Amino acid sequence: MKQFNSNPIKNTTLLILGLALLVSGQTMAQCTPLGNETTYGTGTTWIGYVYGTKTFTTYKGYVNEGGAGSSNFDESFGGDNVTYNTNGCSITTENFSVRYKLTQTFANGNYLFTVGGDDGYRLSLDGGATWVINNFTDHGYATSTYTVALNGATNMVLEFYENGGGNRVSFNVTPICSGTGNPNTYGTSNVWQAYLYQGVNFDLFKGVMTEGTAMNPNFDESFGSANGTYNTNSCSITTENFSARYRLTKTMSFAKYIFTVGGDDGYRLSLDGGATWAINNWGAHSYTTTSYTANLSGTYNMVLEYYENGGDNRISFSVSSTLLPVTLVSWSVAALSADMAQLQWKTTDAVNFDHFLIQRSTDGVSFSDIHTITGNGGSAAQVYSYTDQFAYDGTAYYRLVMVDKDGSFTYSNIISLQLKSAQGVRIYPTVVENGTLFIEASGQINGARLELFDMTGRKLNEKDWASLSGRQQVSIDANGHMPAGFYVARLSNNNTLLAKQIIIVK
Fold this sequence. Notes:
With 506 residues, the protein is mainly beta. The chain has 4 domains: 41-176, Jelly Rolls (Sandwich), CATH 2.60.120.260; 192-323, Sandwich (Jelly Rolls); 327-419, Immunoglobulins (Immunoglobulin-like, Sandwich); 425-505, Immunoglobulin-like (Sandwich), CATH 2.60.40. It is 4% helix and 58% strand. Strands 1, 2, 3, 4, 6, 8, 9, 10, 11 and 12 form a 10-stranded mixed β-sheet that branches. Strands 13, 14, 15, 18, 19, 20, 21 and 22 form an 8-stranded antiparallel β-sheet that branches. Strands 31, 32, 33, 34, 35 and 36 form a 6-stranded mixed β-sheet that branches. Strand 35 (485-493) and strand 36 (496-505) form a beta hairpin. The chain is elongated and about 115 Å long. The relative contact order is 0.07. Residues 1-6 and 8-29 have low confidence and may be disordered.
């Protein structure tokens, strides 16, 4: 059994050392973290909130990074497995995490962000809602970049954790060249305004160039070599992963136009400011072309879009036109009565013009010729009209075929008119297989007449009643000689249309 040391001086020394260790332990236990974990740094000085775990728990205190006009920093925390002091408590530089916050105001422009870390790191530009850089895994020191256009105050959050071994986190933001000019302005006089962007989705506006000449809007652009440099009025682009949007307002006289667009990779052409795409080959592929033909007259806001995804790059545009036989100024249809449709149209520039064919359809797809009108030549305005007396109970569609002396022709746009018959009277069936029609009237009709016409308006036969009511059966092909086809059955009362029906005889 050991005896207690009875030396009073030595016992006093031991007592003092014990009390010192106790006080020291109480001081370490009473360490208080400073900072509120939510406040953002301002100017160019980050506030970093330090945690004793890699999952942002056990808050220890805050530190500052950046300053002196720059928010950039590169922090190694003093080394591996050492003590790192905060405004509050210290940590050991193993298994810890830091959340840096800074509200920085950026002048309007494009910026390149580079973030690095050992281990995980991620960067948000919207207060932590989304991560534009996200490499939140265990790894040796690595860096990631992100380029974006900014303008104004931005709430940045940079998160970092260390899982063991080396530790380091870095942040760098650098302004990059931004394009000047308004990307919404259209070129005129056959000269395109072209707006170039770095990135395949029109990401970073880099500047303006032009294509075409005052005499001709056609062009073929290859942007130099693959993965090279191409200059705009403001900045250069790298000819990999870029996009271009071309704009041109062009007035076109009445003619048939053929547009041909080619690209490597995606391309698309709009004639209405980008609302719809007349040509659309928006995919990654080698150089190919697509054509679109249309009869046009007026002013059009053309938009040609292109992107390059990698490898070779090329975009081309060409348009050619063929004068049409005549310029159609106006073209309309109106109901004169329940049984008649009046077609009217006005033309100019009838040079070497021959005649009009008027066509009618009941479905807007299949058209038949119903009348021919000889055209009046010359450049002066001419007005024409035609009354169609065989409109049926429903929607009728009309178009003009405009034929030149050499036989070339073009179509007008399709117009339509809906005529409705009297209520309480109907003709059926629509498909006649045995030559028999039925007429059904809800009341008495005096002086009723049923007429049958072919689709050109030629009357084939008729039947009269002094008085008609209820349901009547009518034979329209008693001899069985009527060829299969479309016909119009018309029921009238003293020249007043009561019902009309397109029928199909089989």
